[in-house]
Each structure stands twice: as structure tokens, then as C-alpha cells.
Here is the input.
Amino acid sequence: MNRNPIIILLFILLISTTGVNAQQIIAHRGYWKTEGSAQNSIAALMKADSIAVFGSEVDIWLSSDGVPVVNHDATVMLNGEKITVEETPLSTLRQVKLSNGETLPTVEEYLDAFTACNRTRLIIEFKTHSGKEREEELVRKVIKMVHERGLQEKVEYIAFGIHFVLLVRQLDPQAAVYYLNGDLSPGVLSAMGAAGSDYHYNVIYRRPEWVQAAHDLGQKVNVWTVNRPEDIGKMINLKVDFITTDEPLLVKEILQQQ
Ligand code: MG
Here is the structure.
């Protein structure tokens, strides 16, 4: 076979510069540490896309009247009063303003905005609710919304509950779903059909061998929320696949120095 040596050389150069083990960055709650942004805002999603990170993470809940909404905490402040997201109807939640002035977004709005993103993926975290039925309703509704918009190739899921992982596997077998709770080995996660782990970085400090074990099983390793330069460097050296961070530009810079 007549293989062009220049093409082969270019290919080798490409591999060596991009690095086979190069880590990918996931902006935790979007890219929010920048002007005009706020955690879990639509602006944070668009800003994550603008800096071309691998993924933008977002946390979601079900309102009391069954509408998927975006928020991290179980509660939000409205007119000086703490209200519980899953016990509050959408009409009330819509009065909540994020720190950048945005109205607390619905998941539909978030996904509509995401259709305009062409660089970042969306990493959706299903929050743990007071009952499994409501959690199941949330997962069913969101997977349907993702499919209706043809976004399934660009969306991944994460959750602390094993039942969430199993439910996503059942409803959308092609979807990548990662487990957050830090207590299951790569072998168990692989048997469950998870795409991999998404653990606090302290878990990987304690069990660094889980990275290789995961890779041997074709699994990926994500770590959160890695913000300090020394931890970012150590996670890179431990060859995790994804770094979830509040400091996406800092991680980018450290990766470029490696
Ligand atoms: Mg989260």
C-alpha cells in the first residue's frame, strides 16, 4: 500500500500535540465566574460554549406542578423568604431572579438556548427529590424534551442515585449517564451500564487505581469540583478524563502548560 509519509507524520504530530489522554473540561453550573453570568443561568451556558469547553453542567428539579426547572439548591430565596423548589409551582418560581437578573429558567428554555450551542455538550444533573416518583417524572419529561429537540447526541446525564442511572439506561439506552456518589467501583458501574464515574476528587486521591480500572473497562472518569491549581495538576497526572470546575479558564491554562 502506498501511504504518504507526510500524512503519517501529520497524524503522529496531531496525536502528540492533542495528547491521547488530554483531559476535557466541564464548566460546573456553566461558566459563571465572569461578567453578566450567574450559576445555572442561560448566560452561563452560552458563555461555556463561547470558551469551547467540552461540557456545561446544570442542575435540575421538578416544580410542584410538574415543570422541570433549573436550580442547584433545594431552596431559593424569594422576597426574603426561603422556598423549596420541588414544593413550589412554576408561577412562583418564575418570580425568582438570578444574580445576573435572569429569571430562574425552565429546562425547556435551557434546552432551547442550548440548540444554538455548537461547541459544548450539556451535562444534566438530576437532583435528589423527596420521592422517587417525582424523580422518575423528571427524568421521563427531560429525556422526552431532549429527544424532541434532537439533542440526544449532545446531552449526558449525572446523578447521585443508582435508580437514576438505571432509569436513564432504561429510557434512553444510548445516553451516557455517570454516577456521582463516590461509593461504587468501576466494575459495579460497568455492570450497571453507567458510562463511568463522576466523583469528588478526594475519592480519586484515595482510590487512584480506579482510573486505570475504569479505562480497562471502557469507562470514563470525571471529577468534581476541582478549582485549586495543585488539585487540577494532580488530577491531570492521574489521567482522569474530565475535570469539572468553577475555573474552566484556569484548567485550560494548566492543560496548555503540561
Ligand atoms: Mg451539579
Remarks:
- The first strand starts at residue 24 and ends at 27.
